[in-house]
Amino acid sequence: MDTKKLMKVETGPFPLLRQFQRDFDSLFEKFGLDRFNALDPARAFWVPDVEVFERGGELVVRADVPGLKKDEIKIELTDKELVIEGERKQDLEEKKDGFFRSERSYGSFYRAMPLPEGVKVDQAKASVHDGVLEVKMPIARREERRRRLEIQETTVGSKADKHAA
Which one-letter DSSP state was computed for residue 152? Predict the structure, then answer.
């Protein structure tokens, strides 16, 4: 009896690659992800770019949130922190001659930023326009304290050297 007919043995790199793919998929499934979304950063792990600056007595925080509506964004403030979170859901449909493609991508984000002392969070306002979220809040003017520090010159063997040792 010919055992080669009973047992098909695959050789070469392809069986190893298929096993690697199965193991890789299993790893992502443990975290509730699929391989395609996990390997596409635009789909799986999305964090909006943020810009923070002071202008005209206000602290301004801008976040790029393209495609999101105001009801898809949640903002929370404490005296010490600004938290922006939300979820992006995009549907893409493409129709051409004899061709139809439909894709959906999802991705939630969470962004926490520390706030400087003196921000008046109870007067904060938020708006979204053309894919940019803007949060503004008045900030108390801080007095910049500056003083000139004199540099002492010491020589080797001086009293200052003895105290430092």
Answer: P
Measured distance CA(119)–CA(87) in Å, rounded: 27
Question: Where is 64: in which H helix or E strand?
Answer: strand 58-64
Per run of 10 residues, the mean pLDDT along the chain (length 165 residues) is 50 65 64 50 66 93 91 93 86 78 76 90 95 94 84 78 56
Cα–Cα distances (Å) from 69 to 101, 107, 127, 136, in that order, read: 25, 14, 10, 18
End-to-end Cα, the chain, rounded Å: 91
The closest of 37, 126, 138, 120 to 73, measured between CA atoms, is 126
- Please say whether the beta carbons of 62 and 68 come within 8 A: no
The one-letter code for the residue type at 55 is R
